[in-house]
Design brief:
It is a single chain. By secondary structure, the chain is an alpha/beta fold. The chain has 9 helices and 8 strands. Helix 4 packs parallel to helix 5 and helix 5 crosses helix 9.
Length: 290
């Protein structure tokens, strides 16, 4: 069992924390004594999850907070509330993801998976980066997937005008996650803020059901799969392990650093993705990464 005091006085923000891997990660870190900001779209579901985690762990430092990651305005307003309500932030854990069956756009007119799975972490990190620096040592963790290994990322057509395919869209968003982490790690060197990717494994969640085409009630049939608690083990470790204090720019699977795909190390692609992401979110990292 984890040391209940290991994360005491550490504030953690987890997106998509009301269910699946995000909820299990929230519970694991709460059991270690962390103050956990649970972010998601449904306040009622977040409140229910927070109450249950409090009962199970005895930790009452759980804060459900609404945010629509498909809306850049909502992300900015959410970040403003976090900065106003909390004195520090030590772990920012990007867990939320979507896989709509059919083509959808975000509130900002961007293909939904690219918007939520990649641009939302990019923008939210930007909005909270100064807070993370002031709280250093701190960590940014992005939940990616080995699905990124199948991806082709055409930055000239992020709206997939050639035809939408939900699995291809998911794969490319997960490659974007890894490219983002590699670029961000270089920019944050020496800042006291580290950033890493994690692959939680194949976990029997509703998201997996959407990816495979199984009904949500049959997600567990997509074997081999892990439970959500097993899927949360590597994100929890990445957020809390003392031995990772100075480790940045890595891709973790089963608590081990492994090589990500060849495409994920393409520095030119990573730079171009960064520039496009700045354009689409209307931000510039230059001021906060100097």
């Amino acid at each position: 069992m984890a040391d209940s005091a290991k994360m005491t006085d550490r504030t953690v923000l987890i997106t998509g924390a009301n269910r699946g891997i995000g909820r299990a990660t929230a519970e694991g870190l709460a059991a270690m004594g962390a103050r956990v900001i649970m972010a998601g779209r449904s306040h009622d579901k977040l409140r229910e999850a927070a109450d249950e985690i409090s009962r199970r762990t005895g930790n009452r430092d759980l804060y459900p907070m609404d945010v629509d990651l498909a809306s850049q305005q909502s992300i900015r307003e959410f970040a403003d509330r976090v900065r106003a309500e909390f004195g520090g932030l030590h772990v920012l854990l990007h867990n939320a993801a979507v896989i709509p069956d059919d083509y959808e756009e975000s509130a900002d007119g961007i293909e939904l998976q690219f918007a939520v799975n990649h641009l939302a972490p990019f923008l939210l990190t930007h909005q909270l980066l100064e807070m993370l620096k002031e709280s250093a040592p701190s960590r940014i963790i992005v939940v990616s997937s080995n699905a990124h290994r199948r991806a082709e990322l055409d930055l000239s057509d992020v709206s997939m005008t050639g035809g939408y395919d939900k699995t291809s869209a998911y794969d490319r968003s997960k490659l974007a996650n890894v490219l983002f982490v590699h670029e961000l790690a270089d920019r944050l060197e020496g800042s006291g803020v580290t950033t890493n990717c994690v692959h939680p494994g194949v976990v029997g969640t509703e998201l997996l059901a959407q990816y495979t085409g199984l009904p949500k009630s049959r997600a567990h049939e997509a074997k081999p799969y892990k439970s959500t608690e097993e899927g949360a083990e590597t994100p929890i470790w990445a957020a809390s392990a003392p031995e990772l204090a100075d480790v940045s720019g890595e891709y973790f699977e089963n608590r081990e650093a492994v090589e990500s795909s060849e495409a994920s190390y393409d520095q030119e692609l990573g730079r171009k993705l960064w520039e496009l992401s700045e354009e689409l979110t209307r931000v510039s990292y230059s001021e906060v990464t100097a």
